[in-house]
Amino acid sequence: MKNIHNAFTTALLMAVLALAASCEKASLSDMTGKDGGEPNLVLRVVTTGNEAMTRADGETAWNRLCFVVYQNGQKVKGVNQKVGDTGYGQAELTLEAGTYQVLVMAHSSDGNPTTTTAEKIQFTNAMGFTDTFYYYGSITVTGQKQTHNITLNRVTALLRFIINDDMPERVTNLKFYYTGGSGALNATTGVGCVDSKQTVIRVVDRTSMTRPYTFDLYTIPKENTARLNLTVTAYDEAQTAIYERSFKGVEVQVNRITEFSGDFFTTEPTPGGEEPQGGEETTAGNDIFLISANTEWAGVITQTY
Fold first, then answer.
1. Fewer CB in a 10 Å sphere around the end CB: N or C, the chain?
2. Which residues are within 8 A (CB) of 198 and not within 5 positions of it... i.e. 6 or more apart?
3. What Å distances lie between residue 9 and 4, 12, 17, 21, 141, CA to CA?
C-alpha cells in the first residue's frame, strides 16, 4: 500500500510540473519572429522602389528592428530583431479582437531600448545613439483582413563634428559629451522626452581616417529644434586629457544634418574643463503592415567654430 501511495504522489507531482511548464510564456525580449499561436497580425518591413532600408550613400539605414504592441497603456506584445535573424523584417503576432497601439522602431544601437511604456522609449550611453526611425499609431483588430501601408519617419537630428586641422599623433580617442537633446523618445508625440547627458567615445583610427576628421553625433530633440552644449575632449594612450574645448548653443533640427566645423587643435590645450550642465542621463483577421522608410535628410545646416 505504501508503494502504491508513493507512486501516486510521484505521478501527481510530475503532472503538476508538466502543467506549470506548459503555462510558461516566452520573454518578450527574446522574441525574434513569431510569438506563438496562430498569427493574426503580421508586421512587415518592405523595400520599395529605391530600397527604403538603404540610404542614398549605400549604407544600411538600420540593423535592428523593434515591433511593440500596446493596449490601454500596457505593453502586450514585443519582438526584437537584428540583421541576420531568421525572418528579419517581419513579426507575426497573435492578438484578440480589439484596439491597439503599434510601435515600430528601426535603429543601429548595440542593444534595444526599453519599451515598457510608449511615453518613454529609452536608449542609453552604453548602447550608443544612432540614426533612428519610428512609426506609432492605432489599429483595430477585427475578423476582417486589413492591410496598412506605413512609413517610418526619422526622429533624430545629426550633429556632424568636423575637425579641419591636423590631429596630434598622441591623440588616440575623443569623448563627446553633450546636453540639450534627449536619448529617449515619447512615441505618442514623436519628440524627445528627457534631459539627457549623452556621451559618445570615438577611437581615432589613423589607418582609415584622413583630414578633415568627421564624427557623427545623434540626439532626439524635444522640439523640432534643439540647442546642444557640447564638450569635446581628446585623450592620449594613457587616457590623459590633453585637449578640451566646449561649445554652447549648437543648433540641430529633426531630420537635418548640422555640419559643425573648424580648427580644433590650433588653440592651446585646455584639459579638465567643466562639463556643460544638463539633466539626468540619460480570432481576428490577418493584418499586414507594409512598412517603408523616408531615409533622406531634409537638409544640411552649416556652422563653424
1. N
2. 125, 129, 177, 178, 179, 181, 183, 217, 219, 282
3. 9, 5, 12, 19, 46
pLDDT at 281: 34
User: Within 10 A of 93 (CB to CB), how many other CB atoms are there?
Assistant: 24
- What cell does 23 get? 503555462
Q: CB 99: neighbour CB atoms within 10 A?
A: 11
- pLDDT tens for 80-119 read 999 888 888 778 888 889 999 999 999 999 999 999 999 9
Q: What is the pLDDT of residues 50-80, one digit of tens each?
A: 334 544 444 578 899 999 999 999 999 999 9
